[in-house]
Amino acid sequence: MKQFFKYVFASMIGAFLSVLLLFFVGFLLIIGSIMRVSDDQKIEVKNHSILHIQLNEEIVERSADNPFEGLEEYGFTTTLGLTSILENIDKASSDPNIDGIYIDVSDINAGLSTVEEIRNALIRFKKSNKFIYAYSEFYTQKAYYLSSVADSVYLNPSGLLELKGFSTQYMFFKNAFEKLEIKPEIIRVGSFKSAVEPYMSDHMSDSNKLQINVYLQSLFNHMVSNIAIARNMPKDSVRNIALQLKVRNAGDAITYKLADRLAYKDELLMRLVKSSNKSSIKELNLVTMHQYSKSSKPDISISKNKVAVIYASGEINSGSGNDETIGSETISKAIRKARLDESIKAIVLRVNSPGGSALASDVIWREVVLAKKAKPFIVSMGDVAASGGYLIACAADTIVAEPTTITGSIGVFGILFNAENFFKNKLGITFDQVKIGEYADLGNYTKALSPAERNIIQNEVNRIYADFTTKVAEGRGMDINAVLRIAGGRVYTGTDAKNIGLVDVLGNTEDAIEIAVKKAKLTEYRIVNYPEISNPFQKFMSKLTEEAKLYLMPQEYKALLPYAKTFEQLKNNSGLQTRLLMSPVIE
């Protein structure tokens, strides 16, 4: 009875705390909304303003107006949408009230292709003959790559500028599984299909190291070439500076001409004062990305002709998706809606995905094929469009990728987990069963696969791989043997993918839209975006509700939560997959 009252009181306290927390958050949001009433209105940009680019938030493909903006001190996070960043830079080039751009970036929470798109927008901005100055106490390699386009690159006298080549590493779980007594059951096609390696080994295979080395070399060559052009330096000089890590302090950055001047922040601000016709730092008017997004925009076309841009970002799963994941039902519905809407004359599918479920990818592929028959269908690839992310793209009329896009990985794998000993020896849980049919328990995670069961799954993996490669051959107009030679799960950069026929054009989303417009023979049009972006408030409340549930959970069950979450993640990777294990983190 004592234990009963203990849990009752604990639950009551948990429920009270949850309600109190929800009330407090609601109160903050209401106050924040009241304080931001004027912010929701259009912001008037003053004469001689400077667009201040910081990029210290996560950059996503697109973001909605955030109700938590201004509440970061209470733990709320905001994001920057790539589409908004590009629109702002392009808008600033023709805005008479914007004198120039101040890049204030130390690191960038985004992939190389995202950085590439922003960098190209800055290059376009320079055609307006307005200034771009960059300043930082510390430039990471991605931050410097972006900032290298500036008219002047400033560095703190005690700061550092990174230019050191590229590396990437993967985490391997084999030894952890052995300690946990969980045995992965792996079936795959292709020696380059490296997504399963972390489950079965404690290091990279030779074939995986080969493909990583090839695409890192391609990315490195691209970055070195562009920095050399921006800094008016020989390419070999930039390459040697990076490979030999010649820049080891701020002075070295000046010596090797990667930076123009060592300066403190106040000195940089005084340069901005002079460049914007102000008389003191106090008069400087720096406009942030969030602020500039609320300023007046160019007149939006009211043409009846539309070009649909459909955003597919994240892992591919069956069912509904959200802003971070691709749901086969959500994206298929968006493509179908665009196909059946007679006012939509062309479709651009923006893919930023490492792949995922083979079944879900195939469902989306079918809608792409149907849409292509009805109207021009163009794909724009972001940071990664690999495996299932490539399958949903391969049927398009034209595929556009950034040189730094990671794509290909045409392969299939299946993975199941035998956790019988984990439950028995770690948790003290055993299982027993009754079954009718030899294969009634196929896929059960408390038993090992029999040779016959493994053969069944292997045959299905082989069938899906044959189907995948056939669809690539048909979509790309290639001979099947040519596809097989470049498949096997091998990963390519956008540049290399173009050379072997997996990609048609190197460029960005705007290039993809231009191609779509030309194919549809449109003289005027307007853009519509699908699917509808999630409401940030609803996303937050959903997450908060999940956290509140923890207060109601008995204490002894909370101790099992890490095990449950780990096992849930393993189950989510079960089944037949066309995906990378994870998008490569390249540093």
Features:
587 residues, alpha/beta, 2-enoyl-CoA Hydratase, Chain A, domain 1, 2 domains, eight-stranded mixed β-sheet, six-stranded parallel β-sheet, disordered N terminus
Q: How many distinct helices?
A: 22
- The quaternary structure here is single chain
CATH fold assignment of the largest domain: 2-enoyl-CoA Hydratase, Chain A, domain 1
The biggest sheet, with number of strands, parallel, antiparallel or mixed sense and barrel status, is: 8 strands, mixed
End-to-end Cα distance: 58 Å
What's the pLDDT, averaged over the residues? 85
Quick one: how many beta strands? 22
Strand content: 15-25%
Helix/strand-derived category reads alpha/beta
Approximate helicity band: 40-55%
Walk me through this protein's architecture:
Helices cover 44% and strands 19% of the residues. By secondary structure, it is of the alpha/beta class. The protein folds into 2 domains: 49-164 and 245-293, 2-enoyl-CoA Hydratase, Chain A, domain 1 (Alpha-Beta Complex); 306-579, 2-enoyl-CoA Hydratase, Chain A, domain 1 (Alpha-Beta Complex). The strands form 5 sheets. Strands 10, 13, 15, 16, 17, 19, 20 and 21 form an 8-stranded mixed sheet that branches. The longest helix is centred in the N-terminal third of the chain and has 34 residues, at 2-35. The relative contact order is 0.13.
